[in-house]
Amino acid sequence: MSTxxxxxxxxxxxxxxxxxxxxxxxxxxxxxxxxxVKTNGKQHTAPGPEAGKALIVFLQDDVKFGTRPRPTTRxxxxxxxxxxxxxxxxxxxxxxxxxxxxxANWQSPVRLIPTRPTAAAHFTAEAGKTYYYRAKDIAYTDRxxxxxxxxxxxxxxxxxxxxxVLMSSFALSESHPKK
Length: 179
Prior knowledge:
Elements: H1 3-14, H2 16-20, E1 35-40, E2 54-65, E3 72-77, E4 80-86, E5 89-95, E6 98-106, E7 118-125, E8 130-141, E9 147-157, H3 160-169, E10 171-177
């Protein structure tokens, strides 16, 4: 075997998540899966975690997204999409304890200028605990509504108190994969 072929085989075995996921983040699911999203403005809380599980609450915060339409953001855990949000909403999902890789991704690219539509994070979930993650959608505009800079999504852990403040004015998101 040639040296370059051996190097290629070794390199490809070191990065299986990148190969399986064209978005590059180990938490993201397949790019061809999109969600329909509806929101329920009457529910503003999440339950506690199930016995032996952890709960992850995903929030989409569009306060710094100054243009329209706002993106639909899908969320993944360990390579599987688990749901989506749209315009200041949230949802929650139970997970087993252990290391978790998370992803937030605009399911349809925002038709502006080049963007950063994917963000990622990882943490170790513990049974009985609730974790809050906010996808901050950012697109700054000038006085005339023209986009300034590069629109992006940032995924960040959120303090429980701040999450509850946001959830009190956000709607619960109910999503399912499009057929």
